Amino acid sequence: MNTPFDINTSEPRRPGLVARLRASFLTGLVVIAPVGLTIWLIWSVVGWIDGFVLPLVPQAYHPDRMLQDFLGLDPDLQINVRGLGVVIFLIFTIIVGWMAKGIIGRSLIRFAESLVERTPVVRTVYSGIKQISETIFAQSERSFETACLIEYPRKGIWALGFISTMAKGEVAAKSDSSGEMVSVFVPTTPNPTSGFLLFFPKRDVIELDMSVEDAAKLVISAGLVYPPDRSEKSALPDAFPDARS
Q: Residue 208: which of 165, 143, 147 has the closest Cα?
């Protein structure tokens, strides 16, 4: 008779067929889900852009019709090449950006913006969309370049944030005269596009070695996906000289 103090020396039971199939299914799901969702998202965005851009193209210059004429296909045969609208949109955007950099383009933009500023409702919508676009797409010093740690919402509790800029103007003058102030964006989990804008003394902000992309993954995953420690990577060849072999 076995007692509670007896040691079970028998070999551990191997999982059954159903358990192995379940584990293989979950493993395959982990591999397929990110790839499938990414492909579906790209395919949907491309289709949305095509549906918006292609109806604006005159029928005589429609890419599908021109492709039919080039290949000598039957005009009654309808073909739909997904992605042509994206190509047209990219070419049109590049041309508009190139023209906007010139003197004539800047003059036209200033004239159009002056007209928009005189329209009560339109100017509010336009100014808001313009600020968002400049914040997201403009390649300037306003983009997040450094992840950091701050004590928030109180001492002893640490939050992950992104350093945006040094505080300037009235905020810097009236907040803390003893040192430089840094504007820090503290994102929320799991949606990092929303969060809080906080101003901290530079001495209270701890800059991290991890990239902004790794920090964003950490926020989105609610702390489940940690980036590799760069200090451990740099110390690996010295501590373990045969680790790369």
A: 147
Q: Say how far apart CA 195 and CA 201 lie, in whole Å.
A: 19
HSE-up of residue 36 (Cα within 13 Å, Cβ side): 6
Q: 195 CB contacts (<8 Å, ≥6 apart)?
A: 185, 186, 187, 188
Q: How far is CA 70 from the centre of its chain?
A: 39
CA 38 → CA 33, 42, 190, distances in Å? 8, 6, 18
* CB 200, CB 163: distance < 8 Å: no
Binned average pLDDT, 10 residues per bin, the chain of 245 residues: 52 74 87 88 88 80 72 66 82 86 83 84 82 64 78 92 86 77 90 87 91 89 80 44 43
Residue that has been written with the tokens 């072999």 in this structure: 245
pTM reported for the whole predicted model: 0.48
Question: How far is it, in rounded angstroms, from Cα 98 to Cα 149?
Answer: 40
